[in-house]
Design a protein that fits this description.
The chain has 402 residues and is mainly alpha-helical. The radius of gyration is 22 Å and the shape is globular. The relative contact order is 0.12.
Length: 402
């Protein structure tokens, strides 16, 4: 039997896209039982397809089968990333697949849009690892158009683009991201541009205290206070700045050298492949070039999650599949494996506590803090004592990277 709350968000999603199916292009007029539509246009098109595939949203069982397929596809994409990085012990994948009731609920029971955005995001990361940066940026922008939480990966992606291509080289990649947003939102922008932008990209939206997972230990008036929100934003920016300066960027040169063409930096790499351009950065601790890309993207997202104004239960999928990597990407002794598994278990317990409590929210912050400390101290730069590894590709610049 399907629990009564299964249909809540799914029904609201179907109501929101039904207006578009009936010809409504004013974004302020698209709404459902849970309130107005607050997601960008990519969400509308994807869930409009689900609307028609499930008989105007009536066949929820079929929708759950489709999301079960999405869950398996998402795991495949995540596993491929982890195989490329070769940092996480195999037994950890059991916890990722079988030990999270909350993740299974988010995907297959409640049919949220968060898993859709994250699956597209993981596909984009796979393309980045294949040096298909333009296609990866296109998919990244598509993921943002489904839900804006994907923007938490954006600082890390911008750093990688600057490191890989320099300022002039990364501008076309950024234009790809921007152009897709314009194309997807064009029908709504032509009718009510202000309404579309304020609804779909509303960064100041207030969250309800009753749903918060991470700030339950605070008084509600503090939780809703704008000053508290500003403090979290400053903490987020400070964390990104510190990681960018001292963990992502390990070269002795000023970080502003990222704005230069990679060929003109000193010392210039012998071949402009991703292996050689990222080699100096990856020497801070033993990561291959693929693992270094993933570290920057995952840590960028994790910093955003730690400083989030509120985490709701479906937001767990924003970083669940990145946690094993963040825990095991740093050097790990045999005795350290068990505490890391324990951290995963405590985080899972916090997300499965409903409603959240003072204890569960405090425990979640403690776990996040421990992971941040491990990332900071476990990735401290070490003296360079070896030469760059040979590139995997013989050409000066891979066509995929153009």
């Amino acid at each position: 039997r399907r629990p009564a709350d299964t249909e809540i968000d799914w029904k609201a999603y179907m109501q929101e896209v039904e207006g578009f199916a009936n010809g409504t292009l004013d974004y302020t007029q698209l709404k459902g039982d849970t309130g107005p539509l607050v997601y960008p246009a990519g969400f509308v098109y994807i869930f409009l397809g689900l609307y028609h595939a499930t008989g105007r949203g009536s066949d929820i069982r079929l929708a759950q089968y489709l999301f079960a397929g999405l869950y398996l596809l998402n795991l495949l994409l995540v596993f491929r990333i982890y195989c490329r990085t070769n940092q996480v012990p195999p037994y950890v994948f059991f916890f990722m697949c079988c030990a999270s009731y909350r993740i299974h609920s988010i995907f297959v029971l409640r049919l949220f849009n968060d898993p859709v955005a994250m699956a597209i995001l993981f596909l984009a990361i796979n393309l980045f690892l294949e040096e298909r940066w333009s296609w990866g940026c296109l998919l990244f922008s598509l993921a943002v158009s489904v839900k804006m939480n994907v923007l938490l990966f954006a600082p890390g992606l911008l750093f990688l683009l600057l490191q890989r291509f320099g300022l002039l080289g990364c501008i076309p990649k950024l234009c790809i991201c921007a152009l897709l947003q314009v194309v997807l939102g064009l029908p709504f922008l032509l009718v009510n541009p202000v309404g579309y932008l304020t609804r779909s990209f509303d960064l100041g939206r207030q969250f309800q205290f009753k749903w918060t997972v991470n700030w339950r230990f605070l008084p509600e008036e503090v939780f809703q206070n704008r000053g508290f929100h500003a403090a979290l934003l400053l903490a987020h920016l400070a964390g990104l700045g510190l990681f960018a300066l001292h963990r992502w960027h390990s070269s002795k040169e000023n970080i502003l050298t990222l704005l230069k063409d990679p060929a003109k930096r000193k010392p210039a790499s012998p071949r402009l492949t991703v292996n050689n351009i990222l080699w100096q950065a990856s020497c801070v601790f033993p990561l291959n070039a693929d693992a270094w890309i993933v570290f920057i993207l995952f840590s960028s997202n994790f910093l955003g999650v730690c400083c989030s104004r509120s985490l709701h239960y479906q937001f767990y999928v924003w970083y669940f599949h990145t946690l094993p990597y963040l825990l095991w990407c740093t050097p790990t002794t045999k005795l350290a494996h068990m505490p890391k598994v324990l951290l995963l278990g405590v985080i899972e317990l916090c997300w499965n506590t409903y409603p959240s409590t003072v204890c569960s929210s405090l425990s979640l912050h403690i776990c996040h803090g421990l992971i941040l400390l491990q990332l900071w101290y476990g990735t401290a730069p070490t003296p360079l004592s070896h030469t760059p590894p040979p590139s995997r590709k013989p050409t000066a610049m891979s066509k995929k990277a153009q």
